[in-house]
Write a structure and sequence with these properties.
Blueprint (H helix, E strand, L loop, with lengths): L41 H8 L3 H10 L4 H8 L3 H8 L7 H11 L11 H30 L7
Helix pairs in contact: 1-2, 3-4
Length: about 150
């Protein structure tokens, strides 16, 4: 565990604390939907800083937060949470931001400051549409050639 000053329970300073945005403070008890103790768990903080959502979810489970509750907070299905816990990596900014917001994790802790959305705002919907179209095309090809490599 880690205290508010960034010191671990063994007396050493946590190595990642300097990398966190100093303007993002630990939330106050009762202001977040998950147990406040999680915000003092070194594994949770390191996972959040690395955008390791699987690690974030494992820390939440250790704090007795169920997959269903995680799913309801983050706007995901329980099966998506399970897939992430099994190793699926989350890369998309909008999904990372939704997870951070849903769990009450300051976006800055995950390197999700406000500059990126402003820069990408005009292109976000277009990018999402292109990504969806490419996915549909790949699925269509695979349905016509089920034995084909990469399907």
């Amino acid at each position: 565990m880690i205290d508010r000053d960034g010191n671990t329970s063994d007396g050493f300073e946590a190595p990642f604390v300097d990398n966190l945005d100093a303007t993002a403070e630990v939330p106050e008890p009762g202001t977040v939907p998950i147990p406040i103790e999680v915000f003092y768990d070194l594994a949770f903080l390191e996972a959040a800083a690395a955008r390791d959502i699987s690690g974030v979810y494992r820390a939440l489970q250790k704090a007795k937060v169920s997959q269903r509750h995680i799913a309801s907070l983050t706007g995901q299905s329980q099966s998506e949470v399970s897939e992430i816990l099994s190793g699926r990596i989350v890369h998309r900014y909008d999904v990372l931001a939704r997870i951070a917001d849903g769990l009450g994790i300051p976006r800055e802790w995950m390197g999700l400051g406000q500059r990126l959305p402003k820069l990408l705002g005009a292109f976000a919907a277009e990018y999402a549409a292109i990504e969806e179209e490419l996915f549909k095309r790949s699925q269509s090809k695979c349905s016509r050639s089920p034995g084909k490599k990469n399907c």
